[in-house]
Amino acid sequence: MADVTNGRRQPTLQDLANVVGLTANTISRALNDRPGVSATTRALIKAEAERLGYVPNVHARSLVLGSRKTIGVIVTNISNPFFSDLVSEVELQAQEAGYTVLLLLSYESAERERDAIDRALRSGLDGLIAAPVQERFNAWTPVIKAGIPLVLVSRELPELGVDFYSTDNEAGIRLTTDAVLALGAKDVVLLDEDMPFSTIRLRIEGFRRSLERHGLPFDPRHQLALVPPARSFRVSQSWHADDAYRVASDLLDRGRRPDAFVVGDDYYALGLYRALRERRIRVPDDVLVMGWGNHPFTRFMEPPLSTLLLPFQEVARRATRRLLDRIQGTADDQIITERIVPELIIRASTTR
Amino acid sequence: MADVTNGRRQPTLQDLANVVGLTANTISRALNDRPGVSATTRALIKAEAERLGYVPNVHARSLVLGSRKTIGVIVTNISNPFFSDLVSEVELQAQEAGYTVLLLLSYESAERERDAIDRALRSGLDGLIAAPVQERFNAWTPVIKAGIPLVLVSRELPELGVDFYSTDNEAGIRLTTDAVLALGAKDVVLLDEDMPFSTIRLRIEGFRRSLERHGLPFDPRHQLALVPPARSFRVSQSWHADDAYRVASDLLDRGRRPDAFVVGDDYYALGLYRALRERRIRVPDDVLVMGWGNHPFTRFMEPPLSTLLLPFQEVARRATRRLLDRIQGTADDQIITERIVPELIIRASTTR
DNA sequence: CATCTTTACGATAGCGCTAATGTTGGGCTA
DNA sequence: TAGCCCAACATTAGCGCTATCGTAAAGATG
């Protein structure tokens, strides 16, 4: 077989045209199922393309079409099951729409986030789905300026004026807190991360309101146990559980004996369980424990942990659809803010 | 300020050239720090580019340079901590080398894998890191044909003749099995997935050899408990643990009382623990349990699970470096096959 | 002061593709 | 059979960038 590619690796449209005896344009129309080619030549061309292993050059195609059929996803780390589920679902949705996914990780670092945004801009993406690291929104303004559709998830930046999809943290904390209060808990402690995220602030605020609705006092010194921020976001590690173990142990050793714990992450419950077990405090008899996130191991904890199923798949689905609508120009010009209510999962840790 | 972009969204090199009064060529040289521009004009150009928010068009750049500075990663699902760690590390390494990462998921489906490969080829990637779904290698030959550097991880396809990096499954199963045998176990059961992967075959084979080295018989009907393949790979779920629970319960209810379990995934140990607990079989007093993977929850199981730390980060690091070497043409033409030995982590579940 | 070199830039071409516009010839109608 | 239409192709141009070569002016050299 003659080398149609003139020594180049991949055959081009022109190579195909030379072989078939037609012009590159016709080949392009044939392969992309555009009109203007007879059925027989179309078949011939497709067969020849297959035979030569022709793969269209996306660089050229992207250049002329102005699109790469790629959306970017910026999240802090995919070791967090929430984000891995989110990214998985985005990939699935994008793939079905003929888009591929560029993954950029920020590792909870503002600097890395800035870098990720920069790389996203330089990658010629059609759109971007992002869970921002921080409260400062101006890191994202270049994306807006560049006219690249942006949809935020998980953490809101209202100043940006872009679509936002998230799990409903307020509804979530209300569901979990009310569940233990309904069982008669009078002294509930919220064990959560000590970070200045809007999500966490919303949780604390919602927690406070739930207590007050039930006529219970809220004193931050008594009702809050804050876990120092995690140190590494690179790998799936259990520092969360460790830190929670330490914080819970301290609290218990200071003689505090709440009758219920509500936590901001299932991993905290893992550490909390150990602290309680060591002190022979029984769940649920002596204390109720309510998780957050429905991590895969929670069903197998002893006792099985009541927790909150976060609808991250649904968040991802809606965010991706919205982004694709924006990319394809089929979106209305309204700015959507949706918070999807999570689902309470009651297991033995809050059953009496 | 005059609209230099003629109504287009993003300013181009030409726009910049018009503003500064030079040619696009000079602008390009200035911005990319290539010689042929005086220091003063270079500074001027950069300042102007900054002012106008100029972002180079990657599509055009990729077309002329023939590279997109992007590597693809094909894995089955990122809900598996192994793969999420792998992808994270690849992203980190790639990013440091100035590359971005395109994520493609195959969900353990041969069909989806084929589609992912197809999309990878059409995405104009510079290279590809992949954990194949199946044993059939011909799905990957188009990648080789297209001349795109490919590095496999986790699952080997020797016929392809490409670099391969993995954790050492044989060494791993030897480490875990020998650990329980060293404690005097005489009747060990391997609880593993019932799938035709080379990794699992290697585990079973290594398990058999370990038994025989210790003068113990290996009868598949007694020493093997196989868990049906997982049903969904989309989300982080605990079907693994469920299935293992069922298989272990069956085994125990048939009256089998092995003195040690070695499992192929920490999630199996989670289900196994429950099956044992329900039958008041104590770990480690009545039976030893050895995990696999060092999932973040294992330290907090009761008793803490001995397990195997899989060096997925190291695998990712080496694979990425090798791929980048291949892309940049700095690799020798040898085909590397490396298996990195995992690290045994002894906890209470195998302590007497 | 003629010649050579160097610096700083411009002019041109082309990467591989698609969109827009031409061109041809065969079939149809009146 | 003149006139028209339309399917099936070709021709041309251009997306935004970089590489290559060309050129004018300034400086170096004897």
UniProtKB/TrEMBL annotation, chains A, B:
Keywords: DNA-binding, Transcription, Transcription regulation. Pfam families: LacI (PF00356), Peripla_BP_3 (PF13377). Residues 11-65 form the HTH lacI-type domain. It comes from the Bacteria. The keyword Iron does not apply. The keyword Transport does not apply. This is LacI family transcriptional regulator. It comes from Microvirga puerhi.
